[in-house]
Design goal:
Length: 225
C-alpha cells in the first residue's frame, strides 16, 4: 500500500511516517497544499492523510480540487480543528473519514485499513489463490496448513499481487504501489523481495504460484503454466 501524507508539522509527520513504514506501508510526504495537489494527481495512492491547516493551499482546497479532477482516492482528514462544523465541511468536500488531533496511532492505522477495504474492488478480506490464503485484515498468510511469517514489506508486496491475481504486474506498477517516490527504479529491490516471497510461499510446494513473465513483470496464479 502507498499513502500520501500531507502534514506541515515535522514532528507529527515523522511520527506517522515511522509508524506506517513499520507496517510496510510506503509513504510520500507533502508539507504544503500545492505539493500535495501535484502528488495526488501524479501517483496512484491507496489513501491520502490530509491535514487542513497547511500553507500555500488549504487542505479543504486540495481536497476539493482533487475531487474536481476526478480522483477517487480515499482521503482521511487529520486535523486539530475537530469541531462539528469543520468535520461536516471536510466530509462534504469529499473526505471519506475525519480524525481529530491528538490521536492514537492505532486508531489512525485502523481507519486507514478500513479505507483500504472500502476502496478495494473486490472488498475481500481473505483472498485465496489455490491453497494460499491471505487475510488482509489480520495480516495472516497460510498455505495449506502451513502458516507463513512475512515482514511488513513482504506482506505489502504479496497483498498487491493477490489483489491483482491472474494479472501481470510490471515493475513500475509494483514500485508505484508498494514503494514510495524515492524508490530507485534501476535497483533490483523488487526482484529481491519476489525471491523472498518465493522462498517462503513456493519452495517445496506445488504448484508454484508466483511466476515471472519475462520482459514484463510478475503475476500470482494457480492456473496451469
Amino acid at each position: 500500500m502507498r499513502v500520501l501524507l500531507v502534514e506541515d508539522d515535522i514532528q507529527v509527520a515523522s511520527f506517522i511516517r515511522r509508524g506506517l513504514t513499520d507496517e510496510g506501508i510506503a509513504v510520500d510526504d507533502a508539507a504544503d497544499g500545492l505539493e500535495a495537489f501535484r502528488l495526488a494527481l501524479d501517483y496512484p495512492y491507496d489513501a491520502i492523510i490530509l491535514d487542513l491547516m497547511i500553507p500555500r493551499m488549504s487542505g479543504l482546497e486540495v481536497l476539493s480540487e482533487v475531487r474536481k479532477q476526478g480522483s477517487r482516492t480515499p482521503v482521511l482528514i487529520l486535523s486539530a480543528r475537530d469541531d462539528v462544523g469543520q468535520r461536516v465541511s471536510g466530509l462534504d468536500a469529499g473526505a471519506d473519514d475525519y480524525l481529530g488531533k491528538p490521536f492514537a496511532f492505532e486508531e489512525l492505522l485502523a481507519r486507514l485499513r478500513a479505507l483500504f477495504r472500502r476502496a478495494s474492488v473486490s472488498h475481500e478480506t481473505a483472498i485465496h489463490v489455490g491453497n494460499l490464503t491471505v487475510d488482509v485484515v489480520k495480516r495472516r498468510v497460510v498455505r495449506g496448513d502451513r502458516k507463513i511469517e512475512l515482514s511488513p514489506k513482504e506482506f505489502s508486496l504479496l497483498e498487491y499481487l493477490v489483489r491483482n491475481r491472474g494479472n501481470v504486474l510490471t515493475r513500475t506498477m509494483i514500485a508505484e504501489h508498494v514503494w514510495d517516490q524515492h524508490f530507485d527504479s534501476f535497483s533490483n529491490v523488487i526482484d529481491v523481495y519476489i525471491r523472498y516471497l518465493r522462498a517462503k510461499i513456493d519452495q517445496g510446494t506445488e504448484p508454484r504460484l508466483i511466476r515471472t513473465v519475462r520482459g514484463v513483470g510478475y503475476t500470482i496464479t494457480d492456473e496451469p503454466a
